[in-house]
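PROTEIN DESIGN WORKSHEET
SECTION A - STRUCTURE
LENGTH: 78
TOKENS:
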């Protein structure tokens, strides 16, 4: 599984990265997690509000900070 956390470095973006890492660990899934901070790369995903979460090339969430349980559900459904 390939996961990208989109965000320019704000506290919410950093928190999403940590929550995503926690969710992956708790689920015991094999995934690569990449933090994308370049605004132009973020815009290529069509995300105008950060933080954003991309799973296997598909934007699954943007513009808010979800709970760990929601991230786990998004990952399980990917």
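SECTION B - SEQUENCE
RESIDUE ASSIGNMENT:
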């Amino acid at each position: 599984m390939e996961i990208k956390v989109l965000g320019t470095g704000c506290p919410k973006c950093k928190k999403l990265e940590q929550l995503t890492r926690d969710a992956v660990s708790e689920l015991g899934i094999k995934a690569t997690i990449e933090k994308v901070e370049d605004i132009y790369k973020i815009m290529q995903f069509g995300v105008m509000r950060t933080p954003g979460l991309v799973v296997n090339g598909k934007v699954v969430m943007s513009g808010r900070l979800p709970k760990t349980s929601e991230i786990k559900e998004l990952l399980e459904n990917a």
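SECTION C - NOTES
The beta strands are 2-6, 32-36, 52-55, 58-62.
The chain has a mean pLDDT of 96.
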